[in-house]
Amino acid sequence: MIEFRDVEKSYGDNVVLHNLNFSVAKGDRVTLIGPSGSGKTTILRLVMTLEEATGGYIFVDGEPLTHEERGGKRVARSKKDQKRIRQRIGMVFQQFNLFPNMSVLENIIEAPVHVLGQSKAEATAKAMELLEKVGLADKANQHPTSLSGGQQQRVAIARSLALDPEILLLDEVTSALDPEIVGEVLAILRNIAETTDITMLIVTHEMQFARDVSNRVLMFDGGSIVEEAPPSVMFSDPKHQRTKDFLHAVLGNDEGTIGTH
């Protein structure tokens, strides 16, 4: 569903991603872990076309996302093509990015109406279903500023699902939340993982969540993949010393491992 082929990303002399190659199969949940600054969020931003790769190619369901090879040259695709592919992708950010001047319901129906061309009635019905799913149906007419951080993030999740994405990108979705409400947001995401076939690419420091929902975990450091494994292996018997050191630091236990939930 997502393929990175020889992808490079640099800002001037600062190379963030080096010759990156990996793929995510349809329906897979792949989690990227690693220290801050290792390039994880950049990967999500490239898939969302919020950033552009310096080199290489990204494919979504076999189709080039931003660039393709034509006549032996790397050529940019049209903005129209990029937009069409991007409509298949949803993203939930660290910061909730809700429109403060709109109600919760208006935030959710905005894109289905104006991007997908749904009728307001159709979009509203779907939005209310999603608000029910995230436990916020009673907040539909409130404005985001009147909600807690956890509630705002749940609205942001509902908004991303309103577009019926085939791919969902999750970027440290609990990092801006108070610790006591992290669980409620993760529970919603676990439910989505268990009840849908949406392909997920996840960046998180919540290692238990990564263990619970992932098919595969990739350890990043310095813009490259250090190690990849199923969560049962990555969190109980990592092979690479850099992975062991990272998990030891994050988990704060002597073994640097994590059991099943």
TrEMBL record:
MF GO annotations: ATP binding
Keywords per UniProt: Amino-acid transport, ATP-binding, Cell membrane, Membrane, Nucleotide-binding, Transport
Record's keyword annotation contains Cell membrane: yes
Location within or outside the cell: Cell membrane
PROSITE patterns to which the protein is assigned, alphabetical: ABC_TRANSPORTER_1 (PS00211), ABC_TRANSPORTER_2 (PS50893)
SUPFAM superfamilies named among the record's database cross-references: P-loop containing nucleoside triphosphate hydrolases
ABC transporter domain span: 2-247
Pfam families, sorted: ABC_tran (PF00005)
Topology within the bilayer: Peripheral membrane protein
Transmembrane segments: none
Family: Belongs to the ABC transporter superfamily.
Protein name: Ectoine/hydroxyectoine ABC transporter ATP-binding protein EhuA
Organism: Paeniglutamicibacter antarcticus
